[in-house]
Design goal:
Strand content: under 5%
Bound molecules: iron/sulfur cluster
Radius of gyration: 22 Å
Largest sheet: none
Structural class: mainly alpha
Order of helices and strands: HHHHHHHHH
Mean pLDDT: 82
Oligomer: single chain
Shape: globular
Length: 262
Amino acid sequence: MDKKKLKDLAGSKRFIEGIYNYCDRWCERCSFTSRCLNFAMAEDEPEHAETRDARNLVFWQKFGETLQVTLELLHEFAEEHGIDLDVIHSEEAAETEKFRDEMARDHGCCRAARAYGEMVNDWFESARGFMGQGEAEPGEGAMEGTADARAREAETALEVIRWYQHQIYVKLMRAVRGSLDDDPENEEGFQKDSDGSAKVALIGIDRSLAAWGGVRRSLPFFEQETVRLLLHLERLRREVEKAFPQARAFIRPGFDRVALQS
Ligand code: SF4
């Protein structure tokens, strides 16, 4: 994508500003692709690629071009705003970052979310063994060509679970790290970015809870393990709501309110 096209896209009114900051990055399932600049930039792929390898090669070449254009725009921006790009973080700032990371990693919500990710891996491992599917995801292939509604329900549910499995932790880390910078006064009553991240994590938890409910129905032979996961996730949900009481009320651009420009 050339610089002009990127600038034109960035200036277009059809995009909702910042919508991609509080989404789950599941573009395939997103109902706002036509309003998302991030999606439009990624969509600009040539159509002549015939094989996956060729397509991927083109993709990474294009990625390199986008990096070039992005850097040019960034340098222009830095020059306009008098930002010195040669100044790197001081040792002290790096120490602070490290400390913040440690604090976040040690937060109850993040620890529970990390444990959840591992529990999900264990569940998939056992399910694979049970179904004798080697490296394949449980349900994969075994569900192909069947008209069995339960099998389809399980397949969809497992796809949702996999999507959010690690994202919940990543979003909670971001939320906790962000909360360390929150202005305790916040007299203007601005929405806090940390609440936005926590809300995305909560949405991932809600959807995962629903998905595990589907798994429980469709794959009853793992009742005990599935219920254990459901209980853990429900506790995590409550913990996050306690730690970020304003998260549910956070208004994400586009998803919770469409911006006025259209
Ligand atoms: S807003 Fe939708 S289309 Fe844009 S990056 Fe997020 S999931 Fe993808």
